[in-house]
Amino acid sequence: MRFLHTSDWHLGRSFHRVGLLDAQAAFLDHLVATARDREVDAVLVAGDVYDRAVPPLPAVELFDRALHRLAEADVPTIMISGNHDSARRLGVGAGLLGRAGIHLRTDPAGIGTPVVLTDTHGEVALYGLPYLEPALVREQLGAAKSGHESVLAAAMDRVRADLAARPAGTRSVVLAHAFVAGGAPSDSERDITVGGVAAVPTTVFDGVDYVALGHLHGSQTLTARVRYSGSPLAYSFSEADHRKTMWLIDLGADGAVTAAERVDCPVPRPLARLRGRLDDLLGDPALDRHQGSWIEATLTDAVRPHDPMARLTARFPHTLNLVFDPDRADSDSLASYAQRLRGRSDQQIAEDFVSHVRPGGGLDPAERTVLYGAFDDVRVDAATTEREGGR
Questions:
Q1: Lower CB count within 10 Å: N or C terminus of the chain?
Q2: Which structural domain, as residue segments, surrounds residue 288?
């Protein structure tokens, strides 16, 4: 059986204030054409369909058109909600859509109920694990602890229990939206850390034949059977070196992954990160190849140049982001606040603040537990408000 594995569409998102709706439409055209031309048996969408819980109407219309085209092409689609999606909103009409071959899995209660497809070798059970906010689903799933690993383990127990009751030889696929250990993050994913821990081990998914992951925006292989498709478009300059693709997965009669091919996605415009003194960037002929790219320029001039953005855009018309990082011997102490925070989680920033205002000692284990608990409570409150319709 052949699957097309994709995730993290983030419909409605922009890139440094540049609208991406046309690029997202081109990607969906490409997805439908690939599913049809490569004779795909099912499309797997591993979460973050939208960029936010209440997406803009043009994004909803784009999503609606894509579902109609997949249904018309008679390509079954299994789709889960991610941490950016509103599970309740995305799941509206799931029963009716299922009759058209569009299977939305947004409710944790349905984790142990697969979509079953059949080929000449027998049945394949496809289980959708929507993004599981630990504090919200722990009790429902009977998880031992309120953490990502615990709730995913409880969810997978339900999957394995259902699979064990099926005929011997039934192949299995799981869709999940999570941060799995070994994956490389980028700047554009929302932090899902709980209690200071974000990643879960690949062993959580033992017992199934293929795991289609979403959340991380870079395409990557954790094991032969556990993969991230990555996002189809770049959503931050940290993804400048990404090759944006979907996975075309062939599952053999015995459940082994017999082929895994990366199918390239359309690139609306390449990304480039340039660094150096302004005059050097403007005068270097080797940079001519970037004149059509979206540019992030980091200027290292010791003194901020006059009108740098206008001068850069005269040569690089698509310059979107400007960063100043002066070459100074004491650059660490003079680094900008944004630079010092880059790549750090909310919890790490808070710990640094406590250490700064209380010289001579950081947080002890009890204080760290209280701090992490406070962040978890805020996250749960926000998720509960969104789940109840924004009231």
A1: C
A2: 271-340
CA 173/CA 171 separation, integer angstroms: 7
Quick one: tokens of 135?
């504090």
Task: Give burial (CB, 10 Å; 0-12/13-18/19+) of 166.
Answer: middle
- 199 closest CA partner among 215, 175, 187, 218: 215
The answer to whether residues 148 and 214 belong to one domain is: yes
84-111: pLDDT as tens digits: 999 999 999 999 999 999 999 999 999 9
Last residue of a domain, one of 249, 264, 279: 264
Residue 353 has pLDDT above 60, yes or no: yes
Over residues 113-155, the pLDDT tens digits come to: 999 999 999 999 999 999 999 989 999 999 988 889 999 999 9
Co-location of 302 and 360 in the same domain:
no
Q: What is the number of domains present in the chain?
A: 3
C-alpha dist (Å) from residue 68 to 78, 101, 104, 325: 14, 10, 14, 48
Q: Which residue has the tokens 């059949």?
A: 118
Q: For residue 80, what are the β-bridge partners?
A: 46, 105
Q: What is the DSSP string of 206-233?
A: TT-SEEEEES-SS-EEEETTEEE---SS
Asked if the model's pLDDT at residue 380 lies above 90, the reply is: no
For residue 266, give the nearest of 290, 217, 233 by alpha carbon.
233
pLDDT at 356: 64
DSSP state of 204: G
Residues 188, 99: one domain?
yes
For residues 227 and 353, membership in a common domain is answered with: no
Per the document, the length of the chain is 391
Q: Tell whether 250 and 332 lie within a shared domain.
A: no
**Does one domain contain both 260 and 156?**
yes
